[in-house]
Specification:
This protein is mainly alpha-helical. Helices cover 64% and strands 0% of the residues. It has six helices and no strands. α2 packs parallel to α4, α3 packs antiparallel against α4 and α3 packs parallel to α5. It is flat and about 60 Å long.
Length: 193
């Protein structure tokens, strides 16, 4: 004889898994809708960071959370600036695209280690999480914040100096501004007509 608890367990798990699957579909749908709107997405991310900073200034606390968020955003930014296949590692057996290191080499596109959309998504989610953490006193660890600010500025300068040296050494520019744009064959034939 079967008990009601035996029948209720799997059906409850099924309902929970279906609900979680549906919520993930809705979340993915929202991500797909906002993907082409780069300026609006980054405006939203900057607004979130400003809201977080205003909250920190008003409540005068949660400096460890702010420092952690700053370090995380710095790591994301470095991954955004770094090529997917690092030329410093010099793998001979890789058949993938590589950056040109000499002026006579063929142009190859710059592929980021962290794509722009994932960079935006991580910045937004981490900032929302940091805002959420500021509502709990257990995360308000007392520290002397000027030391954290000086340490973050030093870390930022050292990291960016290393990244810029890497960019100059391997001759890559992670931004599309100022790069030559080539037209494809269809565009040139349309212009000739």
């Amino acid at each position: 004889m079967m008990h009601d608890e035996d029948l209720d367990g799997p059906s409850r798990m099924n309902v929970i898994s279906q609900t979680m699957f549906r919520m993930s579909q809705i979340y993915q749908s929202w991500q797909d809708r906002c993907a082409p709107h780069v300026i609006w997405r980054w405006g939203f991310a900057v607004a979130l960071v400003l809201i977080f900073l205003i909250r920190i200034l008003l409540v005068q606390g949660w400096y460890i959370i702010t420092y952690g968020l700053g370090i995380y955003h710095l790591n994301l930014f470095i991954a955004f600036l770094t090529p997917k296949i690092d030329p410093a590692l010099d793998f001979d057996d890789s058949d993938g695209p590589e950056l040109p290191t000499k002026s006579n080499e063929e142009f190859r596109p710059f592929i980021r280690r962290l794509p722009e959309f994932k960079f935006w998504h991580a910045v937004s989610v981490s900032t929302i999480s940091a805002i959420f953490l500021t509502f709990f006193d257990m995360f308000n660890i007392p520290v002397f914040w000027p030391i954290l600010v000086m340490y973050f500025i030093t870390l930022f300068c050292i990291t960016m100096k290393r990244q810029i040296k890497h960019m100059l050494k391997y001759r890559y520019l992670p931004f599309t501004h100022g790069k030559p744009r080539y037209q494809n064959h269809e565009d040139t034939t349309r212009l000739m007509k």
